[in-house]
Design a protein that fits this description.
CATH superfamily: NADH Oxidase
Structural class: alpha+beta
CATH class: Alpha Beta
Largest sheet: 4 strands, antiparallel
Strand content: 15-25%
Distance between the termini: 34 Å
Number of helices: 7
């Protein structure tokens, strides 16, 4: 299933066709594909080329590790994410390795790297659902995340399920139209809230 965005201006097909399903099929994502997704993260832009991201990953074929990672998600996310082929916790290094000073861009850069994962996945027909609903303290304790690193988000990776196979709640989420704010709602000039003439 695809849910192509109805964009107001032309964008690359990968951007228009990327979406985040709640329903995942039982088809496994191959090791090679997962490595290619992580390679895409590797080449993301970052402040001073710091690359402050790390990824904790578990696949469903390793049931013990998959359950450990699943336990790091909030309960509502566990309900649907347990069907994914792989689960990931993203982690940000809080300080620059070059001088030990705080890296204010760390979470931003982790987001860029995970965005690369999403686009590479879309190019391969794979779906990624990013989520803020994780339990950072549980992740820290479970995986021994260092004190100067933060668990940031979770990723569920897999193939989108046929919506007809889903229960009512997931089917409604996965078949509802994609919506976004208009450019005029967030592109400003001169002062905050003043719409830029570029988007009028």
């Amino acid at each position: 299933m695809t849910k192509r965005a109805e964009t107001d201006h032309p964008v690359h097909e990968l951007i228009a066709s990327r979406w985040s399903p709640y329903g995942f099929s039982d088809r496994a994502v191959s090791r090679d594909d997962l490595c290619c997704l992580l390679e895409a993260a590797r080449w993301a832009a970052s402040s001073y080329n710091e690359q402050p991201w790390s990824y904790l990953i578990a696949t469903r074929d390793d049931a013990e590790q998959f359950q450990r990672l699943l336990a790091c998600l909030v309960e509502p996310n566990r309900e649907w994410a347990q069907q994914a082929s792989a689960l990931v916790i993203t982690v940000a290094a809080r300080n620059f390795s070059r001088n030990g000073k705080p890296n204010a861009a760390a979470w931003h850069d982790v987001g860029l790297a995970s965005g690369n994962i999403s686009l590479e996945a879309t190019a391969r027909g794979i779906a990624v659902h990013q989520m803020i609903g994780i339990l950072p303290d549980v992740a820290r304790e479970t995986f021994g995340i260092p004190d100067d690193h933060d668990a940031v988000t979770g990723l569920a990776i897999g193939y989108a399920a046929d919506p007809t196979s889903l229960d009512d709640s997931l089917r409604q989420r996965d078949t509802s139209p994609r919506q976004r704010k208009r450019l005029a709602d967030f592109v400003f000039t001169a002062r905050w809230g003043q719409r830029s003439p570029l988007v009028e």
